[in-house]
Amino acid sequence: MVGGGQLARMTHEAGIPLGIKFKLLSDTPQDSAAQVVNEVVVGDYRDLDTLRAFARGCDVITFDHEHVPTEHLRALEADGIPVRPGPDALVHAQDKGVMRAKLDAIGAPCPRHRIVTDPADAAAFAAEVGGFPVVLKTVRGGYDGKGVWVVRSEADAAEPFRAGVPVLAEEKVDFVRELAAGIVRSPHGQAVAYPVVESIQVDGVCDTVIAPAPELDERLAGEAQQLALRIAAELGVVGHLAVELFETRDGRILVNELAMRPHNSGHWTQDGAITSQFANHVRAVLDLPLGDPRPRAPWTVMCNVLGGDYPDMYQGYLHCMARDPQLKIHMYGKDVKPGRKVGHVNTYGDDLADVRERARHAADYLRGTITE
After folding, report:
1. Which of 63, 68, 201, 268 has the fewest CB atoms lying closer than 10 Å?
2. Rounded distance between C-alpha atoms, residue 53 and residue 347, angstroms
3. Rounded to whole angstroms, how far apart are CA atoms 39 and 307?
């Protein structure tokens, strides 16, 4: 697995019961997954020679991020190394311009958009879609709100162009909430769909995920699942695909982003689904039969634990575990820094208000936002 973050850590954990041996290409020995995987290679994933040396002896290569250069992945395939998802699929999660062009071609519903060249062009696009504000995104490298700007004037639009990379302009959608449809697809075409979830963002970072999305119309939920399955098939995705969506005020869904790896919106599946996104990702990249994605309980809520001014989060275990014996805590072994994702908690049960309060309390207590 290329990338040593928490996604690799949790994917490795899912492979242990199957006896799957993991080899990890990590930036540093202190990365989240590097702390727990037995065979770790420390190196730069952007260097082709490093990638080739790492890949020798591997049955399959997969990822915990989308940043490996597309041309490097093609070189690995030319060397006979299975890469899953492959570069022809993964490029749609790496490059937002390529993604939008492909989604347009297959008729997937998207916000209005186009590539813009400078602030004046961004202003012209704004006029086309009814005026400012509009959303500007660098086509590569953005995540967790980075590389994304909501601009309200031509003068406000200068910043995105300073990086010297193409910029995608999108209309600012008047949405009710954000949803995510997670599916897993194997090389032989088997696919499973998880319940559509509501994803609540704070300052561009996922804060809370509710599974399934409360009061979501069954028709719209089915439409979202079918859309995710169709996108996966059209793009040739192998492994987990998260389709991040807007639910609009007039009852439609629009595709916001794609992620071709285990995803924050699917962390609830570790404790709330019969087969987690991580276990099914492992099965998919090894072309094994996929597991049952159905939920174990009527409601599951995941809350991210962000770093704050309280560095020793482990002191909070005593309170959180005693207060809620059903609580599931997943920490990533990261140094605590303000605003950094250092873990998450999962709760589940029959009453959504109760399940949500339990998750929120635990996440806030571990962060130090509350102390009782």
Report:
1. 201
2. 42
3. 29
